[in-house]
Amino acid sequence: MKWSAALILLAALAAPTTINAFTPTSLIQKSGLKTANVKVGDDSVNIVNKMVAGGAQAYGEEYYEGVRIGPPPDLPSLLLHNRIVYIGMPLVPAVTELVIAELLYLNYESSDEPITMYINSSGTTTANGQSVGFETEAFAIADVMRYVRPPVHTVAIGQAFGAAAMLLAQGKRGKRFALPNATILLNQPRSMARGQASDIAIKAREVSHNRRTTCDLLARACSKPLNVVMDDCQRVKYLQPHEAVEYGLIDRVLETETSLPVKPSFISQLK
To answer: What span, in angstroms and rounded, lies between the C-alpha atoms of 166 and 144?
Structure first.
């Protein structure tokens, strides 16, 4: 029953704010945000009504002696709060939808501060080469990267294969990076055509068009002739980070922590 009274009190405290869910109590109090001290047994619990990172309303945030009580913060919200977009899966529709939504949100939040995109993806295929998505997923992300006003910095970690390598190259010139042990791979799209011969022929033409579009985007990003890139993509071509720099696909290999493009600030907020 005591907790029921606390929940009723929360409804009366509803008021929007831009403070995220991980702000210390001292900063919340300075901001003028409404809080309430609710007596539960012999303890006093500070319950806060505020906005979480990403805009969702959070009710019933609890603080006991200045320490937030509750589940740990979710990492995607922490990364988004620091203008970091992470692609850690093949480019299937659900991943594309999330990445585009994050880019559009960060564009709305600030048109000047850069966005950092970390890429660890096998592109539109799985690690063993099985097709799981279409190149149009990568084209959609590449178009939005150019559409948004903030510059997009790209960083390859682990792997950037196929369409993911193309996205890596679409970052702002001079701000395309790779970590020392990343692997970058150039290849051509795979066809998932099934059915009658006429349907397969139609799909083959579409795959050929997507291949040319991918190579054209790479050629412009790497400042290379289109025919050179198309020849390189005829067969699988692996590039180590320093080879990718020579190829023009990235600009620099990040060797030390001090060279990272973004130092997240959420750690200090959690203390």
So the answer is: 14
Written as six digits, the tokens of 187 are: 């290849």
Q: Do 65 and 72 contact (CB within 8 A), yes or no?
A: no
Count of C-beta atoms within a 10 Å radius of residue 141: 24
Question: Which residues in 133-264 belong to E strands, given as ranges?
Answer: 152-161, 176-178, 183-186, 237-239, 252-253
Token duo for residue 126: 């799985």
Place of tokens 């990343």: 182
pLDDT tens-digit readout, 111-146: 999 999 999 999 988 877 778 888 899 999 999 999
Structure tokens at 103: 């880019």
The CA distance from 31 to 47, in Å, is: 15
- Number of residues assigned to the chain: 271
Q: How many CB atoms lie within 10 A of CB 103?
A: 20
In sequence order, the 6+-apart residues with CB closer than 8 A to the CB of 82 are: 262, 264, 265, 266
Q: What is the pTM of this model?
A: 0.70
Query: What does the DSSP assignment read for 192-209?
Result: ---SSHHHHHHHHHHHHH
Amino acid at 246: E
CB atoms within 10 A of CB 62: 15
* Pairing mode, strands 152-161 and 176-178: parallel
Percentage with pLDDT > 70 across the chain? 65
